[in-house]
Design goal:
This protein is flat. It has 6 helices and 7 strands; from the N terminus they run ββββββααααααβ. By secondary structure, it is mainly α. The longest helix is centred in the middle third of the chain and has 18 residues, at about 75-95.
Length: about 160
């Protein structure tokens, strides 16, 4: 007798190379959990906590990237890459709605003297602590998914 356990998990089809296995996309199916071992067709389960952590640490480097991009006498590949990354992060920030943009800016793009304390931010945005954490996680996951077609995403194995 085969027992199946049903869990609510985020399932993302992928075509990226992941740990030495080529994954193929599955089109026109709406299945919560699907795994076909013998055909080479699989779905990876997104590890939201680790993906959020990876996006957070990546975005924390914004200030040093911005400093490198603003240097006038420096030229080369590092500066070009820094300018590209800063432009991409700022474009993402500009596409957010007002509340999410303020949270994003307070976490990553504002100077330390300009950042607001959390209690002040809760009052200005009219959100509570739980809603703030949910919005922050949503922002980080959305950025992880949008940055270079999911390069920051981590999948459970």
């Amino acid at each position: 007798m085969i027992r199946s356990t049903k869990k609510e998990e985020t399932i993302i089809p992928t075509t990226q190379w992941t740990r030495g296995t080529r994954l193929l996309p599955l089109f026109n199916f709406s299945i919560q959990y699907f795994y076909l071992k013998g055909k080479g067709l699989s779905y990876m389960v997104l590890d939201e906590i680790e993906s959020t952590r990876r996006a957070y640490y990546f975005l924390k480097s914004y200030k040093s990237l911005h400093t490198l991009a603003e240097r006038k006498n420096e030229h080369g590949a590092f500066k070009d890459k820094a300018v590209e990354l800063v432009t991409e992060i700022e474009a993402y920030r500009d596409n957010l709605d007002e509340v999410k943009r303020e949270i994003f800016a307070n976490l990553f793009t504002k100077k330390p003297k300009e950042t607001k304390k959390l209690c002040d931010l809760y009052k200005v945005l009219c959100v509570d602590k739980i809603e703030y954490k949910c919005l922050k996680t949503e922002i980080l996951l959305d950025f992880a998914k949008s940055y270079r077609e999911g390069a920051l995403l981590v999948y459970k194995t």
